[in-house]
Structure to design on (580 residues):
């Protein structure tokens, strides 16, 4: 089962502040890691945290990424790692960013030679019509976002087509802005890559198309029809053929691994790669994260960081303007749902500090309140959004209410509960419950619902579905990551509310993006070479280093049922909030 542990697979992670690369062996163990930190190791680009910020516009220099790549491979060889034993590479890149190539690019890529100088010397500036790539933190496309949504009838309609409503960072709105404001650069652009297809192009020495899962981060791709939407393309460019050509027509579908080519001779000659080393499509960082675990349909990954992010695997295309759906990068007919909340750790910390009488890092009083089963909050519901929230889409607001537990309807709004310990318990409950109700429509694993007395429709955002649906749908497994996943009080509450039927796990994920890239590389290669016929999740599950994952505990049914009672009141409370 271990195979030949002298053969390696590389997974890159080109993120905002650094380029990282991991090598794994056939047992999926990490055998080598190298990282280039942009600000520190390439100071000549004068980036701050990897980017240039000018008002709302945030960009990264493309030449810096090329230099980082050369530097990275030099480190591998300096440290004695034999790149000649690498069988295949894939990877993860920051999503949404775009690289603009000139007509000369393909020829320059195909002509890359180690004898002709470094990557940056051979490609920059001639290969690029813009020296920089818009970064996912860019906020400068408000006008273009409105145009996108108006073109198709509104945010929900755009989400229906492309998997997401319009977002500043999504590539379609970024390209439109460049077409409008930098007509010369746009006219000189022959090909637009995402960061992921840019890196795959450099490594394989030819322009490659965009990977399909990544194309779902552009607001341009019709997810159901699996092709770019003509109306949206026309919005970007009156000459639809021209933008189609720039995007290299169709993305690379994710149904089966597609071998893009071999590592180009530049890397073979300079760093000793084998000329057979295969390059497989790169994907986005969140998409790579789900590939770092053997996640199956109905599994959820809960990231309890500064913000709370949920990634889940679903076969339901049930889009919403409040979250994102992407085609799954390795499982055919599946999607990745991504729900991002603004108010995660920060909102909890504010209550922690109130309880402590000032800012300290002591979570004891907060955790005690969350764990306190004698603290009766069975008729209380509260939302705590010190920052404007994405889900639901509302401005910053705190609101508390008392409800009638027998009917579920709100009786009165209150300024405060009995004391602030109630806020500690209520914030964790309502954060977890918000996750639970938003993932329900995307789940297909159901449990029998007993003793249901109310069967009415309950609305959250764009979903108006029977309460029974919320009662019956439960995730399969829940994986907790991020800073607050180490806090047992918070995690246990999430476990109670989410009610995963096949267990709850906790893990550290310092490398999840690059590791997802490694796993994608090894599985793609073995599948392509007919050494396995297993689907990605099964292949990974069999070989997965489970010893690195902590099984926390199973969910208990009683707690899960208990939170059924708070679904209707939460929906009523959210309906009462001011809108953006
Ligand atoms: C996702 C997103 C970020 C970047 C970070 O939509 O914008 O997660 O991909 O690198």
């Amino acid at each position: 089962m271990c195979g030949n542990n002298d053969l390696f697979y590389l997974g890159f992670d080109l993120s905002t502040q650094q380029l990282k690369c991991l090598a794994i062996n056939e047992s999926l163990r990490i055998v080598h890691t190298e990282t280039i930190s942009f600000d520190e190791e390439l100071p000549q680009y004068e980036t701050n945290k990897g980017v240039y910020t000018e008002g709302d516009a945030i960009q990264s220099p493309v030449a810096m990424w090329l230099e980082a790549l050369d530097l990275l491979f030099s480190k591998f060889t300096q440290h004695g790692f034999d790149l000649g034993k690498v069988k295949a590479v894939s990877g993860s890149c920051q999503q949404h960013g775009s690289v603009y190539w000139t007509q000369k690019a393909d020829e320059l890529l195909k002509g890359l030679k180690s004898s002709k100088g470094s990557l940056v010397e051979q490609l920059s500036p001639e290969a690029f019509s813009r020296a920089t790539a818009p970064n996912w933190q860019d906020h400068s496309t408000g006008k273009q976002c409105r145009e996108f949504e108006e073109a198709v009838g509104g945010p929900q309609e755009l989400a229906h087509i492309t998997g997401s409503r319009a977002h500043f960072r999504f590539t379609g709105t970024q390209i439109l802005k460049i077409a409008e404001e930098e007509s010369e650069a746009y006219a000189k652009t022959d090909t637009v890559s995402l960061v992921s297809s840019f890196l795959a192009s450099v490594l394989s020495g030819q322009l490659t198309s965009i990977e399909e899962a990544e194309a779902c981060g552009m607001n341009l791709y019709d997810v159901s029809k699996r092709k770019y939407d003509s109306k949206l393309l026309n919005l970007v460019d009156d000459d639809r053929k021209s933008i189609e050509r720039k995007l290299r027509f169709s993305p690379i579908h994710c149904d089966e691994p597609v071998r893009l080519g071999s590592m180009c001779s530049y890397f073979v000659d300079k760093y000793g790669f084998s000329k057979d080393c295969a390059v497989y499509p790169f994907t986005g960082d969140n998409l790579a994260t789900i590939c770092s675990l053997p996640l199956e349909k109905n599994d959820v990954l809960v990231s309890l960081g500064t913000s709370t992010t949920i990634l889940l695997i679903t076969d339901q295309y049930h889009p919403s303007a409040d979250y994102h759906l992407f085609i799954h990068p390795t499982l055919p007919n599946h999607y990745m749902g991504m729900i991002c909340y603004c108010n995660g750790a920060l909102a909890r910390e504010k209550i922690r500090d109130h309880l402590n009488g000032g800012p300290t890092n002591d979570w004891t009083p907060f955790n005690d309140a969350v764990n306190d089963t004698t603290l009766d909050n069975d008729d209380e519901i509260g939302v705590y959004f010190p920052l404007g929230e994405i889900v639901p889409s509302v401005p910053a607001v705190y609101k508390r209410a008392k409800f009638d537990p027998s009917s579920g309807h709100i009786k009165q709004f209150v300024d405060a509960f009995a004391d602030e310990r109630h806020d500690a318990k209520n914030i964790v409950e309502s954060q977890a419950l918000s996750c639970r109700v938003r993932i329900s429509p995307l789940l297909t694993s159901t449990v029998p619902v007993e003793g249901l007395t109310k069967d009415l429709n309950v609305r959250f955002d764009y979903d108006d579905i029977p309460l029974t649906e919320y009662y019956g749908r439960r995730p399969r497994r829940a994986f907790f990551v991020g800073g607050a996943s180490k806090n047992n009080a918070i995690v246990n509450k999430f476990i109670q509310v989410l009610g995963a039927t096949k267990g709850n796990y906790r893990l550290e994920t310092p490398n999840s993006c690059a590791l997802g890239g490694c796993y994608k590389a090894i599985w793609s290669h073995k599948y392509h070479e007919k050494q396995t016929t297993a689907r990605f999740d099964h292949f990974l599950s069999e070989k997965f280093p489970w010893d690195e994952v902590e099984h926390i505990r199973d969910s208990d049914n009683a707690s899960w049922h208990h939170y059924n009672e708070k679904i209707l009141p939460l929906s009523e409370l959210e309906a009462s909030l001011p809108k953006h």
Residues 458 and 464 are 5 Å apart (CA to CA).
